[in-house]
Predict the 3D structure of the following.
Amino acid sequence: MSLSAEERNAVVTFRLEKAQRAYEQACGVAQHQYWETMANRLYYAAYNAVSALLIAYGYNAQTHSGVIHLFGLHFVKAGIFPPETGRLYHDLFTMRLTGDYDDTYGLTENDVIPYIKPVGELITQVSELAKQHLK
């Protein structure tokens, strides 16, 4: 993705805002016990934040798996984020797939609720790093 500095800044800002909205949506549906929807929104909150980070650094992923791979390669293996953060992001992807596509297993409160705080922390950390890199 060949972006000018201004375009890159706008895309990163938009994705970080989408991440925050998705996180707020996830928290909002918890009271209704919509666990699959909550898993979906938590994943997309993380996805938008991580993809914003990749764009801020000039990396381009074409797929969800590509975002996972590039984040692991450039930010987890490089020691910028601990391995637990990489596992968190991968687990969210798997949980979202289960919630959206698995016909034999429905997500429960115990599956999803433990991810609320870690996803909020991930968004904060990733957002700070992306914004710092754009300065």
